[in-house]
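Researcher: We plan to redesign the surface later, but first we want a full-length starting point. Tokens attached.
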């Protein structure tokens, strides 16, 4: 198991105490993606390299989402996606 996955629960609890909803959402989504990766059929081990790959993919997806939201005049959603991406970066 990777080091990041093992630390996620603690990071989520800290973000909840800070009442930072964007950070909580970003970390919960990251944990869900890692669990999905770990439990997939014919899954590879969730090591540090796999964790970093998942994070990079999520950051790219969030930036793409933010661009789409901006193009459709949904600045509130674009800002939220950019905030989540910045926490993961």
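Model: Full-length starting sequence:
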């Amino acid at each position: 198991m990777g080091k990041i996955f093992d630390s996620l629960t603690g990071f989520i609890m800290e973000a909840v105490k800070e009442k930072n909803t964007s950070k909580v959402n970003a970390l919960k989504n990251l944990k869900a993606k890692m669990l999905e990766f770990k439990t997939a059929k014919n899954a590879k081990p969730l090591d540090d390299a796999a964790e970093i790959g998942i994070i990079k993919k999520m950051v790219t997806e969030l930036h793409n989402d933010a661009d789409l939201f901006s193009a459709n005049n949904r600045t509130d959603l674009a800002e939220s996606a950019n905030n989540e991406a910045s926490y993961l970066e």
